[in-house]
Amino acid sequence: MTFESPDGKYLYYTKLNQEETTPLFRMPAGGGEEVVVVPAVGSWEFLCLTSKGVYFVPEEHGARTIRFLDAASGKVRTLATPDQPLEAGLAVSPDDAFVVWSQRDRETYNLMLVEGFR
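Given the sequence above, the corresponding structure tokens read:
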């Protein structure tokens, strides 16, 4: 998956590889050298780009950490550590004021009996 930075200057992307980790790369939109921005990210569903930086969930089984790579400083910090593993989905408001994610809090099943079924 490829994402364009909000200012249009860079492309952020991952590559399919045979390695155990999936790095996030960045390169100038007009072409140039690629650099590794984050050494191991989870699925593209856990990546959000804003003008302030990159929000991501690291690539690890049962990921429970949401991190932020500050574009200005290049430093990564932990934003949240939810109680439950994250499901597919991470989003950030345009002004970086809110981060939302999906998580499974409870899983239930129902057993149904259908009488007279043919």
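The mean pLDDT is 85. Try to locate this feature in the token string yourself.
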